[in-house]
Amino acid sequence: MSYNEQAIENKHYSDLARRLEQYIAPVFQQAAEQASRQGVASQVQQDTTGLPYHLAVHAIHPDSGKMNHYRLSAHPLENRVTYETHDARSGETWQEVAPLAALNEKVVDTGLEAFYRELFGLRLELFSRRHPIGF
User: Fold this and answer.
1) Rounded to whole angstroms, how far apart are CA atoms 18 and 4?
2) How far is CA 134 from the centre of its chain?
3) Which helix (H) or strand (E) holds 4?
4) pLDDT digits over 87-115, tens only?
5) How far is CA 37 from each of CA 34, 93, 108, 113, rounded to the nearest angstrom?
6) What is the edge-to-edge ordering of all strands in the sheet holding 80-87?
7) Residue 10, CB half-sphere, CA atoms under 13 Å: how many?
8) Which helix (H) or strand (E) holds 29?
9) How far apart are CA 91 and CA 134, in angstroms?
10) Suppose 48 and one of 5, 17, 70, 132 were both cysteines; which one would form an S-S bond, judging by CB atoms 3.0 to 4.6 Å apart?
11) Over the stretch 40-57, which tens digit does the pLDDT of each residue have?
């Protein structure tokens, strides 16, 4: 790989890490805070130091005490992102793989909103403010 190709690749990785840290991580954090205020203890875990980059929200179901998660794993070397939802009550885990270019605001909001709505029955104000009815 030439010096220019390496520089472009490094910039791509740093741009992705910056996007995760500046936009996506704050949305995860706001969702976790709102869910916690509504009785679903939640915390965010982030790792953009290694590859793939990981960002997850872990939430304890108040009825079962079991840990559930919604995780985003960005794989810049493979040009893909994996979205994973784990429901500890049923033991089921769902994954969706998409091109890295599909990592955007709407997709992240939809995934987090569905995680809290489907697993906990929560409607978070964060998403109702950001999107019109029917989101």
Assistant:
1) 21
2) 21
3) helix 3-19
4) 999 999 999 999 988 888 889 999 999 99
5) 5, 26, 21, 16
6) 42-47, 53-60, 67-75, 80-87, 92-99
7) 7
8) helix 25-37
9) 29
10) 17
11) 999 999 987 778 889 999
